[in-house]
Design goal:
With 342 residues, the chain is an alpha+beta fold. It has helices spanning 2-28, 93-122, 127-152, and strands at residues 31-37, 40-44, 48-63, 68-73, 80-81, 86-90, 155-157, 162-167, 174-175, 180-197, 210-214, 219-222, 226-228, 238-246, 257-262, 268-275, 280-281, 287-292, 298-309, 312-317, 324-328, 339-341.
């Protein structure tokens, strides 16, 4: 019996070592995966289509320089206005009272300097006293100019010509300094803004021909010069592109949806697509795929996706031609896992 116990005790370390070696061997066993190599497809096309929105050429916010109660707003939204046209009138009772007081003070000062000048010329005043009289006259004139300006500022006039886009205040409301009363839009020429993926930016130049269709008014327009943005959206990796459009009939209004056809004939578009099932989503919302490095290890690679075509999805950024993307077996992967390609 004692011999049996001794034999068991001697065998236990051997069993533990064997189990450890088997576990280590299992850990080192590469995970079997199926991959697809990324390739960029070059597609010859006669142009690209985008959905955009109409924007005004410029917008001017019109506001008072002082505070007061609005008596009357002379314009309405959508109305055409000319430079210098009356926009709104503020209660001017206080401004008129201040002007009357300043005028009275100015008259007194002007009358006083005439009388004191005689004394100064006769030598009955010191030079210091004369300088003090002149200073009071200058102050009165300055106060009068300020009072006239304050009264004039109770009338708000259009600084530019255009269309009233939005009216922010109505009669009876209190206007604060620099608070918007109305906005005036220049829509004689408008801009149609579209978002262009970074991969397609090289196909667009300032002179690329474009055709623009606006369903709201049932018309098509030829686009003019193109302005290309230089800062990409951090999430979508697209750039803002604005196309100038002549708007002689004032039919195009800000906010209208437009379909833009970029007529880049002869331009070849490069597209990278992978199986839709290979793309996964993190908790914070970003997309990623599993890629296999040259040493066979698996890594999470963040990607930006584009359009879905059938069972495939376009990859806008994150992958390069030749990368190996895991399409099957990724459920068992973690960062740095050794893989064996099926």
């Amino acid at each position: 019996m004692k011999t049996t116990k001794i034999s068991i005790l001697l065998l236990l370390p051997i069993l533990f070592i064997a189990c450890g070696q088997q576990a280590e061997q299992r850990e080192k066993t590469p995970t079997l995966v199926q991959v697809e190599q990324v390739s960029v497809q070059t597609i010859a096309g006669d142009g690209m289509t985008y959905v955009g929105t109409v924007e005004e050429n410029s917008a001017t916010i019109v506001s008072f320089t002082g505070m007061g109660t609005l008596q009357h707003v002379a314009v309405s939204e959508g109305q055409s206005v000319s430079r210098g046209q009356l926009i709104a009138v503020m209660d001017d009772a206080q401004a008129r009272n201040m002007l009357a007081a300043a005028e009275a003070q100015s008259r007194m000062a002007e009358d006083a300097i005439v009388r004191y000048k005689l004394l100064h010329d006769e030598g009955s005043m010191t030079e210091a006293q004369w300088v003090e009289v002149e200073s009071k006259v200058d102050q009165a004139r300055s106060q009068l100019a300020i009072a006239k300006k304050n009264l004039a500022d109770t009338r708000l006039e259009a600084p530019v010509s255009g269309i009233v886009g939005k009216r922010y205040l109505a009669a009876g409301e209190t206007a604060l300094p620099s608070q918007p009363v109305v906005s005036i839009l220049d829509i004689s020429t408008v801009k149609v803004k579209i978002a262009v993926p970074e991969r397609e930016m090289k196909n667009i130049t300032p002179a690329t021909p474009t055709s623009i269709s606006v369903e709201a008014i049932g018309r098509e327009f030829q686009g003019g010069r193109i302005e290309k943005g230089v800062q990409a959206d951090a999430m979508t990796h697209t750039y803002d592109v604005r196309i100038r459009v002549e708007n002689k009939g004032m039919e195009l209004l800000p906010g209208m949806v437009a379909k833009v056809r970029v007529n880049s004939q002869g331009v070849k578009n490069e597209k990278c697509t992978i199986p839709l099932t290979a793309v996964q989503k993190r908790a914070e919302g970003t997309m990623f795929v599993w890629t296999v490095a040259a040493d066979g290890t698996a890594h999470r690679t963040t990607v930006t996706v584009g359009e879905t075509v059938g069972n495939s999805v376009e990859i806008l950024s994150g992958l390069n031609e030749g990368d190996r993307v895991v399409t099957a077996g990724y459920q068992k992967l973690s960062e740095g896992t050794k893989t064996r390609i099926k």
